[in-house]
Amino acid sequence: MAEIKYDIRETFGVLSESSKGWRKEVRSISWNDREPKFDIREWAPNDEKMGKGITLSKEEIRNLRDILNRMDL
């Protein structure tokens, strides 16, 4: 299996943290030397491991923002 390269460009915030220290974070990440995208996923302490997540383009993150703004939370 090919190794996945990633470069964390910016961390925007933490959505939650588990009792074991895993944090669900919103970040900007460059995957395999490509243009950075927005990313929401869980990270182990010290970023040593990552869980499943979702990667969004700028257009997708704007659409998500608009959807969340329309919701009655």
Automatic annotation (TrEMBL):
GO terms for biological process: regulation of DNA-templated transcription. Residues 19-67 form the Transcriptional coactivator p15 (PC4) C-terminal domain. It holds the Pfam family PC4. This is Transcriptional coactivator p15 (PC4) C-terminal domain-containing protein. GO terms for molecular function: DNA binding. It comes from Geosporobacter ferrireducens. It comes from the Bacteria.
